[in-house]
Design brief:
Elements lengths: L1 E5 L3 H11 L5 E5 L2 H10 L4 E5 L7 H10 L6 E6 L3 H10 L3 E5 L3 H15 L7 E4 L2 E4 L4 E4 L2 E3 L3 H12 L4 E3 H7 L9 H14 L8 E4 L3 E4 L7
Parallel strand pairs: 1-2, 1-3, 3-4, 4-5
Antiparallel strand pairs: 6-7, 7-8, 8-9, 10-12, 11-12
């Protein structure tokens, strides 16, 4: 595993490198946002660990540029403990997970392995379809009414969970777990953010494909014109 760490904390980079190298992880450190973007452009990385709080270009600005450039590489954000606003914005911009500082190198390694597992194609690929939406679980590609749509990793996982249960209400509190994201510790507000972004990308406004069941969760209609 080759991981790019974008963080202005050189001591943290040294600590993580000392722990991760014997675990089979090659950590490359970039001390700022622009340096990180340059390193990422050179390619060869499996994942990015990105600090939110950096001087100059902060982590959220870096993440925005990464996704705008079309990079689908898994990104794990480092945020201040308890700062839900950064977590929600980061996930909205396309982060795959976050970890709050301070954290242990062991926890970081576990989360890196988890995001990489999710990024790998399924051993048995399948195509799921409902309400004009199709997902290929092998290639992790999605289409709406036959038109390709770009989704982030967590959006693909949430939509897959809803497709597999089309016509059934999925409780908001259980949605992350059913999507294989039980290790992502975010509140219900973050789930709502992802559903909102999914609706925009699926041209689902007003919602007819993914509907809210007030006080419970969400249901994906079997067909777009389902009452």
């Amino acid at each position: 595993m080759r991981v790019l760490l974008i963080d202005d904390d050189a001591r943290l980079a040294e600590l993580l490198g000392g722990y991760l190298t014997p675990q089979g992880v090659a950590l490359v450190h970039a001390g700022g946002g622009q340096a990180g973007l340059s390193a990422l452009a050179a390619g060869g990385f499996d994942a990015v660990v990105l600090d939110v709080m950096m001087p100059g270009m902060d982590g959220l600005a870096v993440l925005r540029k990464v996704r705008e450039a079309g990079h689908r590489i898994p990104v794990l954000m480092l945020t201040a403990r308890g700062d839900e606003a950064d977590r929600v914005v980061g996930l909205e911009l396309g982060a795959d997970d976050y970890i709050a500082k301070p954290f242990s190198p062991r926890e970081l390694l576990a989360r890196l392995r988890a995001v990489l597992r999710r990024a790998q194609p399924d051993t048995v690929a399948e195509k799921l379809s409902a309400s004009g939406i199709t997902i290929d679980t092998g290639s992790r590609e999605a289409w709406v009414d036959g038109t390709p749509v770009e989704l982030t990793g967590i959006e693909i996982d949430l939509l897959t969970a809803l497709l597999r249960r089309a016509g059934r209400v999925v409780p908001r509190a259980a949605l992350l777990e059913l999507a294989g994201r039980g290790d992502v510790s975010v509140g219900e507000r973050a789930v709502d953010v992802h559903i909102s972004r999914l609706r925009k990308k699926l041209n689902d406004d007003p919602p007819t494909r993914i509907r809210t069941v007030r006080g419970v969760g969400y249901v994906l209609a079997r067909s777009a014109d389902e009452p």
